[in-house]
Structure formats: structure tokens, C-alpha cells
Amino acid sequence: FQPQEERELEKDRHRWHIHYQDVLFYVNMDRVLKPDLPQTFIEIKSRTWSASDAENKADRIKEMLDILGISLSDIIRMEYLDFQPAVE
């Protein structure tokens, strides 16, 4: 295996398992140290078993984001490594 490029990532992660409305969610709070990104990132996820289950959990995640004061316009869909160029 020969990668096309190489990138380095270092992050400080805090992880919680929480129950919200009787559903288990996984919450990760990351601070990316390398590359040095000023933001703190929050990831909320859950296992899903069907399309309707996924929709239900997505609605609950939206509710949690609302409680945290995070709007849909704040959501970043990029991977951390996409924030930096490849190492040459």
C-alpha cells in the first residue's frame, strides 16, 4: 500500500456516553492540536438499526444541538484532515 499523501493529526478528545430521552448517544468533544485549529468540535452519534430509527435519532440530535445553542449553520461536514494540506 502506497498512500498518495500523508497527513498528521493530533487531537485532545473527551468522550461521554449519555442517555437522552432513553436513547444512548456518544458525544465526542475534540480540540485539534495539529493542525492548530481554534475551534472546539462536538460530534454526537448513535447506532441505528433502520431508516426510521436513524430519522428518530437525527431528530433527537437536532434537539440536543438546539439545547447547546448550536445552529445548523454551525455544522461542519469536513474531516479534520481536510483542514490542512498534505505533508510534502
Largest sheet: 3 strands, antiparallel
Strand content: 25-35%
Record the strand order, biggest sheet: 1-2-3
Spans of at least 5 consecutive residues with low confidence: none
Number of domains: 1
Radius of gyration using CA atoms only = 16 Å
Commentary on this structure:
This protein is α+β, with helices and mostly antiparallel strands and 88 residues long. It has one domain (10-80). Helix content is 20%, strand content 33%. The chain is built from one helix and three strands; from the N terminus they run E-E-E-H. The chain has one helix at 51-68, and strands spanning 10-20, 23-34, 40-45. The chain has a three-stranded antiparallel sheet. The longest helix has 18 residues, at 51-68. The two termini are 18 Å apart.
The gist of it:
With 88 residues, the chain is α+β, with helices and mostly antiparallel strands.
Task: Summarize the helices and strands and which ones pair or pack.
Layout: E1 10-20, E2 23-34, E3 40-45, H1 51-68
Antiparallel strand pairs: 1-2, 2-3
Keywords:
three-stranded antiparallel beta sheet; single chain; globular; 88 residues; alpha+beta
